[in-house]
Amino acid sequence: MKSTPFSKFGLTVLGVFLTALPLLACPFCSMQGQTLTGEVQTVGMVLFGTLKNAKLKSGGDGIEGTTELHVEEVIKDHEIRKGSKVLTLNRYIPPDKEKIYKYLVYCDVFMNKVDPYRGVAVLPDSKVAGYLAGSLKQKDASVADRLAYFFGWLDDKDPEVSNDAYKEFANADYKDFQPMASKLPAEKVAGWLKDPATPGFRLGLYASILGHCGRASDASLLASLLDNSDKRLTTGYDGILAAYTMLDKSGGMKRINGLLGDAKSDFLIRYAALRAIRFFHDYRRDLVNADESAKSVALLLPQGDIADMAIEDLRRWKRWEMADQVLAVRKAEAGKVSIVRRAILRFALGCPSDATKALVAQLRMEDKQGVEDAEELLKLEEARPAPSNTASPPKP
Question: What gap in Å lies between CA 34 and CA 42, rounded to an integer?
């Protein structure tokens, strides 16, 4: 697959952006956003074919002109095409000298004119057209059935297709993912995890799937991944940790707590362990209850480079009974870090204990503006709508 810069011609080629986004619907996916399928449903016409006969406008600026799209497959049709197999695009697109690419073209139709605004260049044997046509047939199906369809494309050799199928999982709520994941073929998923060619950013999702559909014996595979020094695995470490714990709770929690309590461990690895615990707290209290999660997070309190995150979690979870442990951080080495001290203040503002009230009163005298700023931020946080992606109301 090749991406061609069409933006100066009015088209933009779809790129793959591995951007970390907050509040991911999929707890262990790193790629979200609009999918090819999702966009098909919002545009006037989507066609697949070959670009030919590009012509520059005489006397133009070297950009204006026309290009013929020879239509081979129609993903979404519009009456303006009138069944024509050749559509003239009002854009000059430099010819592909190697003549090895075909194009998926998204078009808006406005005032009886076709506006091709996005193009995706793929190899001639790409199945992207069939992939999209099949996905459109699933538009009224249940989320579980749709995800089952996209699962079948996760290992497609065309990155445009496989990455798009991955994004469908990334966009799905866990409450929809959980029941269908348990029905997926564990052996196939295990094969992907073993394959060194599997992109690192996909390992978290694949491990999570195996954690739902696998057997206890599959825990050894996940453990071997956790022990592997391959940097590619770091991206999905949180998903692998959580999946391992799903299949072997004792071994998984021992490993997670060992990482959380090891201040010398790499920050990203400790953060991955924290994300794994957050997953259990927010989604799977049936496996790791809320008290266990809170105790695990508290292991981070002595660590100045990450204690603020632990304190914020304890505050969000309203673990006010841990106030003494949180307040003790102020007198420890970690408490010298300004962001940690601010986290302690936020915790104290929410906690109803006498000790935290006394601290807030003291800080209000020392830094009135700082306390008021923290209170204002907390009000803004409370005003935000709560995410609705939990599988069920969690129980301790």
Answer: 11
Report the helix count and the strand count for the chain, using DSSP H and E.
Answer: 17, 6
Taking the CB of residue 72, how many other CB atoms lie within 10 A of it? 14
Q: Which residues contact 107 (CB under 8 A, 6 or more apart)?
A: 43, 44, 45, 46, 47, 78, 114, 115, 116, 117
Query: Which residue in 36, 40, 20, 37 sits closest to 271, CA to CA?
Result: 20
Round to whole Å and give the CA distance between 225 and 244. Answer: 10
**Residues 277, 386 share a domain:** no
Whole-angstrom distance, CA of residue 380 vs CA of residue 48: 47
Residue 137, classed as helix, strand or coil, is helix
As a whole number of angstroms, the distance between CA 48 and CA 87 comes to: 11
Q: Is the dihedral of CA 249, 294, 29, 173 positive or negative?
A: positive
Q: Which residues pair with 113 in a beta bridge?
A: 110
- H or E segment at 378? helix 368-383
299, 325, 342: which is the final residue of a domain? 299
In the chain, the amino acid numbered 151 is F
pLDDT of 230-280, one tens digit each?
A: 777 788 999 999 999 999 999 999 999 999 999 999 999 999 999 999 999
Domain assignment of residue 294, yes or no: yes
Which two three-digit tokens encode residue 273?
Answer: 């362990």
pLDDT tens digits, one per residue of 102-148: 999 999 998 888 899 888 899 989 999 999 999 999 888 999 999 99
**Total domain count, the chain:** 3
Shared-domain flag, residues 286 and 383: no
Three-state DSSP class for 76? strand
Please check whether residues 91 and 184 belong to one and the same domain. no
- Tell me the C-alpha distance between 358 and 354, whole Å: 6
- Tell me if 225 sits within 8 A of 196, measured CB to CB: no
Antiparallel, parallel or unpaired: β 113-122 and 12-13: parallel
Dihedral sign for Cα 263, 269, 272, 273, please.
negative
Q: Who contacts 86 (Cβ-Cβ below 8 Å, separation ≥6)?
A: 68, 69, 70, 71
- How many residues appear in the chain? 396
pLDDT of 1 > 60? The answer is no
Give the structural domain span for 265: 173-299
Last residue of one domain, picked from the residues 109, 130, 151 = 130
Q: What is the pLDDT of residue 235?
A: 84
